[in-house]
Amino acid sequence: DARVTQTPRHKVTEMGQEVTMRCQPILGHNTVFWYRQTMMQGLELLAYFRNRAPLDDSGMPKDRFSAEMPDATLATLKIQPSEPRDSAVYFCASGPDYSNQPQHFGDGTRLSIL
Amino acid sequence: KQEVTQIPAALSVPEGENLVLNCSFTDSAIYNLQWFRQDPGKGLTSLLLIQSSQREQTSGRLNASLDKSSGRSTLYIAASQPGDSATYLCAVRPIKAAGNKLTFGGGTRVLVKP
Asked: Which end of chain A is more exposed for a tag (fewer CB within 10 A), N or C?
């Protein structure tokens, strides 16, 4: 079965360090999403790409977060500088651009900022 | 702004009992509603997707209903098994949202006791 692959699965780093999370969407999916999940806020959409172009990043703190799709097989989410409040699980999802098709999620990156 | 609510937040049932999970949303202008399952340390797995024109969808022991006018969906899991223990999330795709964005509920954590 095709899967969304995220790396790394776990990341522990100190406050102030740069963090880069990577996602390989399912081949043929032209929409890619980044979500953040915390106990307090649940699942929040951070950024959304269609055909590699950013369509919506209104949920993302612009001063420290950035999301890109250098090519169709790679999406990245960077945090610089990282802060303890960024600790969460970050999920990438991909899907075809049709309303009758579900999104497919990766297993996430569990991020801890000390 | 679309809001999605799932009550209760947690549910515990003995094995064999039918599960009934509730989801409510504030704006009936949606393209579809999806139910997802999330296991600990994992991403979300799509279970069922109901288009706004549909009243229900079925897959094996799972049945999801949609009453768009009242802003409600219910996920039924027949003859629950310990392997059904997980967190179940519902999400709607609002018509007013750009692209294939989803708005998630907070989830219901289910424990099926042997």
From this structure: N
* pLDDT tens-digit series, residues B89-101: 999 988 877 667 8
Contact A44, A35 (CB under 8 A): yes
Asked whether B64 and B21 are in contact (CB, 8 A), the reply is no
Q: Determine the 3-state secondary structure of A16 from DSSP.
A: coil
Please report residues of B whose CB lies closer than 8 A to that of A1. Answer: none
d(CA A89, CA A87): 7
Q: What is the pLDDT of residue A5?
A: 96
CA distance B102 to B43: 15
Residues of chain A found within 8 Å of residue B45, distances taken between Cβ atoms: 105
CA-based end-to-end distance of chain B: 41
